[in-house]
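From the thread on structure requests for the teaching lab: each student submitted one protein with a one-line request. Submission from student K.M.:

"Model Cytochrome c domain-containing protein from Mangrovimicrobium sediminis, C-alpha cells only."
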Amino acid sequence: MSWWLKLLIGLALLLALIAGGATWYLSTSDQREPSKLAFAEHCADCHGDGLQGTSAGPDLVSGALAHGDTVPQLMASIVERHPGSDVADWRESISSESIKALALYVAERRRAWPSTSDSYFLDVEEQVVSSQYHRFRVEKVAELVARPYAIAPLPDGRILVAEKSRGLSMVTPDGVQGEPIAGSPEVWAPIATVRGSQLTLGSLLDVELHPAFADNGWIYLSHTHRCQLDCGSPWPVSMVRVLRGRLRDGQWVDEELIWSVDPDYYTVVPDAVACGRLAFDNAGHVYVTVGGKAPYSNLHKLDTPYGKVHRVRDDGTVPEDNPFYLPESERQEGSTRHTVYSYGHRTAQGLAAAPGGQAIWNTEMGPRGGDEVNRIEAGGNYGWPLYTGGIDYSGEPVTIGEDLGLDFAYEDTVPPVVEFTPAPAISSFTFHRGEQFPGWENDMLIGSLKARTLYRVRLRDGVEVEREALATNLGRIRDVEMGADGLVYLAVEHGDNGSLLRLVPTSEPM
Ligand code: HEC
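Reply posted by the TA:
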C-alpha cells in the first residue's frame, strides 16, 4: 500500500470517529442536561421524577399552580415555598441563574412540548378548533415531497413552495405538487441528519412575490449559494444570496442578482442558521435576514454580513439613506456595511412588513427561552449575544457576548416587543389581512417549530395586548402566509417531507 493510501484511510477513520463521537454527544445531550439533573437531585424527592407530585410535594405538571407558572413566578416559588427545608439551605449556595434554569425546566415540562428531535417525527393533526374569535378547520391541502421552508401563494390560487433540498416547485389549487421548476437555483442534498435536523450547504430559503407582482411578475428568491474550488475553498462553502426572476411557460427566466457577498464570507456553517427571509416595504425596498453563519464575534462587525438585516432597492441598487451607507469609493474591499439596516440578530426566521408597509418586523429564535418579536429600526442594535431573555441550553447564563469582549449598554439596544419564554422555537409569521377571519385583522400569526403551534399576537401601539395559541400538533411550522382566497396557509415539515395546511372558517361541531 502506498503511503498516501494509508494516509487517506487513516484520515477517513479519524473523520468517522469524530462524526460518530459528535453524533453520540448530540443524541445523548438531553440526558446530561444540567437543569434536569439538578431537578432530579434537589426536587424529585418531593415533586417526583416526572414532576407528577408525591405525598411530600404538589404535582407541578398537570393543572394550575397555586402560585403561577411564568418563569419569574416559578423562580419566586422555588425561593419562597420551601422554608426550613433542604431546598432553603441549598438555595443559599446556588446562583439565581441556576434557579432560573430550574424554573425554566418546570415551565418547559408543563408545556409538554416534544424535544426538538421528536418534533420532526410526529404526525400532523387535521382538527376543528374553537378559538377566541373564530372557529376553524385545519385542513391538509397537499403532501409535499421534501421539507418546506417557505411558500408564496399566487393571485390565481397556485402556491410556490421553496423546499430546502429540492428547490422551487408549484402546487396547484387542487393540491398537486409539480417537479422542481426548470432554471430555478440549484440546491444540494443534505450532508447529514443529526437528531432529526438536516445539515445542508446550498438550499432554497425563501420565495416572495414583489408587491406589484400582478404588473411586473417579479418573484424574489433567497438561497444559500454554494461553491468550492471556484471560489477558492478546498471544501464546499455557502452563503445567502438574493435573486429575482419570472415564471414563463413553467420555467424560471429573466434571473437577476439582487444581493450577494464576497466569496470570502462564504462559510462551512450549515444553512440551518442562514435565515435568508425576505420582505418588502411600501417604498420599493427589499430586506433580507442573514443569521450567524460565522462566529458570533461578527454580529457586531458592520463590515461582515452575518447577524444582520440588509436592505437594498428592489432592483438591487443601494439606497443612500441606509444607516451605514458609504459611497463605493470609500468601501473596504468586500464589506457589506452599506447594505446593513440593523445588526446583533440571532436567527431571524421570520420577516414581514406590518400593515401599511411602513414598518418591518422580525421573529428571532432565542437560545433556551427568549424567542423574540422585534420591530426593525434603521441602525438598531438588537443585542445578541450580549443581551437575551433566555439562558444557554446548558442551563447556564449566556456569556458568549462577554467572552467575545462585546461591550455596549442594554439601553443602547432595541428590546424585543414580544418575548416567548420558555421558547417554542418561533419561526416565520405574517400579519393577518382579509375577510375570512375578520376578528384577527392585522394580528400577527406566528409559527413555531418545536412547539408545533400557531400563535396569534395582537399589537396595539407597538405593544402586545393579546396572545393565543390558535392550534397545536401541526408539525414544525416553517412559513405562514395569507392566500389569495383570504385563508391562512402553513408550510409544515414532519418526517423527511411535509405538508401544506390551511385554516378554513367553519361552523362544524368538534
Ligand atoms: C422537601 C420537599 C420539597 C422539595 C425538596 C422541593 N419542594 Fe417544591 N414544594 C414542596 C411543597 C410542600 C410545596 C407547597 C408549598 C406551598 O404551596 O406553599 C412546594 C411548592 C413548590 C412550587 C409551587 C407550586 C405551586 O402550586 O405554585 C414550586 C414551583 C416548587 N415547589 C418547585 C420546586 C423545585 C424546582 C424544587 C427543587 C429545587 C423543589 N420544589 C423542591 C416541597 C418540596
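TA comment: The CA atoms of residues 211 and 280 lie 7 Å apart. The mean pLDDT is 90.
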